[in-house]
Write a structure and sequence with these properties.
The protein contains 28 helices and four strands. It has 719 residues and is mainly α. The chain has four domains: 1-159, no CATH class; 160-630, no CATH class; 632-683; 693-719. The strands form two sheets. The protein has a two-stranded antiparallel sheet. A two-stranded antiparallel sheet has the order 3-4. α2 (28-48) packs parallel to α5. The longest helix is centred in the C-terminal third of the chain and has 48 residues, at 635-682.
C-alpha cells in the first residue's frame, strides 16, 4: 500500500473539507477542483491497500494488520485506541466510498455549477466521504461510532442543502409550504429518525464494553472481541435475565443499522432524503450513509456466528442452551426484517410518481436484500454464501444506484420537474442518458449479464441452500423472488414513463423553447463509466470471492463450508459459471430458473403496460390498492399522526390548559393578591409628616409593651 494509506484515504478528504473555505476565498475554480482532487487522492490511497489484501501481506497469521496509536489512557491499564483495520471488508468498503464518491464529485462539477452555496456543498460532501471511510476503516466500535455520527451530521446538512428556496409546494403531510422549508423538514426528519437507531447502537456498545471488561478484556476492538477466550462476554451477557439481556443488546445493536440503512420500522426518512441535490442522493444511496448499516452488520455478524458455533461445540450447560436459543432468533430477526422491508418498499415504488422517490424506495428494497443475505449467512452458520452474496450485492448496488441517481439528476436538470408524468419522450433528446440509465435499470432488475443478475443470483442461491435444511429458507426465498418480480416491473414503469411515453406538456414546452438537451460531458462521462462498470463488475466476482475468503477460515477459526473451493482463477471461473447455471442434482440450476421466472413475471406486464403501451395502465391509477401503495401503506401518515400531529396537539393542550391556564393563572393570581395587599398597606402611607410620627410612636409603644409584659403574657397561656 502507499505510505499511511489507512489514514490518508479518509484524512485527505477531511483536509480538503477544512481547506475549502480558504480555497473559495482565493478562487472558485481552485475550490471546486481541489475538492474533486482530494477525494480522488483518497480513492488512490484506498485502492492501494487491495494489493496487501490480495497477496496477504496485511495478514499476520491469525489476524489482520492494525495501525493504531493511544488516544486516551485511563487509570487501571485501559487505553482508548485510535486505530485503522486493514482487512478485506474495511478496504472493500473504503474503495466503494472513495471510488464512487470521486465519480459523484466529478459529476458535481457540472450538476452544481453556478450554485451560490458551493463552498458549503464541497465542504460537506468531502466531510461526508471522509466520515464514511473513517467509519469502515476503524478497528473498534467507538471509532466506528464517531464516523457514524459524522455521516449522520453531513446527511442532515446535505439533505436540507437548498433550505432557502422560496417557491411554494404542497406536501401530503405538511400542506402548503416553501420548498426551502420542506427541504429543511426532510433533513431534520432524517436526523431525528436515524438518531433513534444511533441511541440504541450506543447503548449496545456500552453493554458490550462492560461485559468484555467483566471477562477481563475491556475492549471496543473488533479483533479482540473475536479472540476473547470462550467468548466469555457473550456467555456473561446470556446469564442475565435468562438470555433476555443478550437478545435486547443484539437488537439494540441492530437498531443502529436499521436506522442508518432505512429498514422497517425506521425506513420513513429515506424517501424524504430526495430533497437534496441528486448528487447528494447518489452519495447517500450508493457510497455512504445507507451502506454504513449493512457494513456494521457485515462486520459483526461473522464475530457473532463464530461465537455461536463455539458454543455449539461447547459442553452443554445453561449458558450454552441460552446462547443456542437466543442467537438464532436474532439471526432470524435480521433476515425477516430484510425480507419484509424489501417487499414492502418494492410495492411502494410501483405507485410512486417522483423519479427520485422510485429510486429511493428501490434503495430501501435492495438494502433489504443485503440484510436478508446476512441473515441467511448467520442462520446457515456453516455456509458463507449469504455473506458473499450480501457484500457483492452491496458493491453492485453502489455502482448501479449511483448510475441511476446521477442519470435522474441529468433528467431533472433538463426537465425541471421531479414528476415522471411531466416527462416522457426523452429518449431522442437525451440518448446517452437513456442508454446509461437503461444499463442501471437492467442491472437493478437482475437482468443478465449485468452485475445485478450475478449478485441477486447469489442471494437466491444462499436462500435455496438454507431451505434444504430449514423451512424458513423457503419463505425467505419466496419473499426475495416476489420482490425481484416487483423490482423489474417498477423499473420498466420508470423507464417507460420517462423515456417511452408520449411527451408531456412540460417536455413539449421545453422542446419549443429549444431547452431539451443532453447532459454536458462532465456529467455524462461519469454516467458512461458507471454504465460500463455494471457490465464488467459481475465478471469480477471470482476475484472478489478470493479477496474475501482467502483467509476466512483462519481469521474466524471455524469450518466454513464455502460454496466454491478456492482454486486458481481459471478453475474458479469454470466452477463459478457451472455453479450459477447448473447443479449436481438438476441439469439447470433451480435458482437460475427462479431468476428467469422472476424476470418474466415482472417484465411481461411491465413491458406491455409501459414500454409497448398496448395495455392501459391508467385504469389502475386511482383504485384502492394504488392509493394504499401511493400513501406508503399509510405507515408514514400513521407515524406523523402519532408522533408529530398528536405530539403537537398534546403540547398545545399542555400549553393552553396546564402552562397558560394553570401555572400562569396561578402565578398571576398570587401576583395580583400581593399587589392588592400592597395597595391596602399603601393607604397607611399618607405623606402627612405629623401622622407618620404618630404611627411611629404607636409602634414604638407596642414594642416596649411587648418587651415588658410579653413574657408574663405567654406564661399565662402556656403551661
Amino acid at each position: 500500500m502507499l505510505p499511511y494509506a489507512p489514514w490518508l484515504c479518509w484524512g485527505l478528504p477531511i483536509i480538503g473539507a477544512l481547506l475549502t473555505p480558504v480555497f473559495g476565498k482565493i478562487h472558485q475554480k481552485l475550490r471546486d477542483y481541489a475538492a474533486v482532487i482530494m477525494v480522488l487522492l483518497g480513492a488512490i490511497f484506498a485502492f492501494s491497500m487491495i494489493v496487501d489484501i490480495w497477496y496477504g501481506t496485511a495478514f499476520l497469521g491469525t489476524k489482520w494488520l492494525e495501525e493504531t496509536f493511544v488516544w486516551l489512557s485511563i487509570p487501571g491499564g485501559f487505553s482508548l485506541e485510535f486505530g485503522m483495520l486493514i482487512d478485506p471488508l474495511a478496504v472493500f468498503m473504503a474503495c466503494i466510498a472513495t471510488g464512487v464518491g470521486f465519480i459523484i464529485m466529478l459529476y458535481s462539477l457540472g450538476y452544481m455549477k453556478g450554485d451560490e452555496s458551493l463552498t458549503r456543498y464541497w465542504f460537506f460532501m468531502q466531510f461526508f466521504i471522509a466520515g464514511m471511510t473513517l467509519l469502515v476503516m476503524a478497528n473498534n466500535l467507538l471509532m466506528t461510532f464517531i464516523g457514524w455520527e459524522i455521516v449522520g451530521l453531513c446527511s442532515y446538512a446535505l439533505i436540507g442543502f437548498w433550505y432557502n428556496k422560496k417557491n411554494m409546494i404542497k406536501d401530503d403531510q405538511l400542506g402548503e409550504l416553501t420548498e426551502g422549508a420542506y427541504n429543511s423538514h426532510c433533513g431534520m426528519k432524517a436526523f431525528i429518525v436515524t438518531r433513534i437507531g444511533d441511541v440504541g447502537l450506543l447503548i449496545s456498545i456500552i453493554f458490550i464494553f462492560f461485559f468484555t471488561a467483566q471477562a477481563g478484556y475491556p475492549t471496543f476492538n473488533y479483533q479482540t472481541l473475536l479472540s476473547i477466550p470462550d467468548f466469555a462476554w457473550l456467555g456473561s451477557m446470556a446469564q442475565v435475565f435468562n438470555g433476555g439481556l443478550l437478545l435486547l443488546v443484539l437488537f439494540l445493536f441492530f437498531l443502529g443499522p436499521i436506522g442508518k440503512s432505512a429498514q422497517f420500522p425506521l425506513q420513513i426518512w429515506l424517501p424524504e432524503a430526495m430533497a437534496g441535490p441528486s448528487t447528494v442522493s447518489a452519495l447517500i444511496h450508493a457510497a455512504a450513509m445507507v451502506k454504513a448499516g449493512v457494513y456494521l452488520v457485515a462486520r459483526m455478524m461473522p464475530i457473532l456466528v463464530t461465537g455461536y458455533i463455539e458454543f455449539l461445540h461447547a459442553a452443554s450447560g445453561p449458558t450454552t442452551t441460552i446462547i443456542l436459543t437466543v442467537m438464532p432468533n436474532f439471526f432470524l430477526i435480521v433476515a425477516v426484517i430484510g425480507a419484509f422491508t424489501s417487499f414492502m418498499t418494492a410495492t411502494m415504488a410501483i405507485a410512486a410518481r417522483e423519479l427520485k422517490k422510485v429510486l429511493a424506495f428501490s434503495t430501501i428494497s435492495q438494502l433489504g436484500y443485503m440484510f436478508l443475505g446476512l441473515g441467511i449467512f448467520a442462520l446457515s452458520a456453516h455456509d458463507a454464501g449469504g455473506f458473499i452474496a450480501a457484500t457483492f450485492h452491496l458493491s453492485a448496488h453502489a455502482v448501479f444506484k449511483a448510475l441511476l441517481f446521477l442519470s435522474a439528476g441529468a433528467i431533472l436538470h433538463t426537465v425541471h420537474s421531479k414528476d415522471m408524468l411531466e416527462m416522457g419522450g426523452l429518449r431522442k433528446a437525451m440518448p446517452i442518458t437513456y442508454i446509461c440509465m437503461l444499463f442501471g435499470a437492467l442491472s437493478l432488475s437482475g437482468v443478465p449479464p449485468f452485475v445485478g443478475f450475478w449478485s441477486k443470483e447469489l442471494i437466491f442461491a444462499a436462500a435455496w441452500h438454507l431451505a434444504t435444511t430449514n423451512f424458513i429458507g423457503w419463505i425467505l426465498l419466496a419473499a426475495a423472488a416476489i420482490t425481484g418480480a416487483l423490482t423489474f416491473f417498477y423499473t420498466l414503469r420508470m423507464i417507460g414513463l420517462v423515456f417511452h411515453s408520449p411527451q408531456s406538456k412540460n417536455v413539449q414546452d421545453l422542446e419549443r423553447k429549444h431547452q431539451l438537451h443532453e447532459a454536458p460531458k462532465v456529467m455524462w462521462i461519469p454516467l458512461a463509466i458507471l454504465a460500463l462498470t455494471t457490465l464488467i463488475l459481475g465478471f469480477l466476482y471470482p476475484f472478489i470471492y478470493v479477496y474475501f475468503f482467502g483467509q476466512w477460515g483462519t481469521v474466524y477459526s471455524i469450518d466454513i463450508e464455502l460454496p466454491l473451493h478456492l482454486a486458481a482463477l481459471p478453475t474458479l471461473y469454470i466452477n463459478w459459471l457451472a455453479h450459477t447455471f447448473t447443479s449436481t442434482t438438476y441439469i439447470i440450476s433451480p435458482t437460475f430458473l427462479i431468476t428467469i421466472g422472476v424476470l418474466l413475471l415482472g417484465g411481461i406486464p411491465g413491458y406491455f403496460f409501459y414500454i409497448r403501451r398496448s395495455w392501459d395502465a391508467s385504469r389502475f391509477s386511482n383504485n384502492a390498492l394504488h392509493r394504499f401503495l401511493y400513501h406508503r401503506w399509510y405507515y408514514n401518515r400513521a407515524l406523523y399522526f402519532v408522533f408529530v400531529r398528536t405530539g403537537i396537539e398534546f403540547s398545545q393542550g399542555m400549553y393552553k390548559y396546564v402552562e397558560d391556564g394553570g401555572i400562569d393563572r396561578f402565578n398571576y393570581a398570587v401576583a395580583d393578591g400581593f399587589q392588592d395587599l400592597s395597595r391596602a398597606f399603601r393607604k397607611l402611607q399618607t405623606g402627612v409628616h405629623s401622622w407618620n410620627m404618630i404611627l411611629l410612636l404607636i409602634g414604638a409603644l407596642v414594642l416596649i409593651l411587648l418587651l415588658l409584659f410579653g413574657g408574663t403574657f405567654l406564661a399565662f397561656f402556656l403551661p
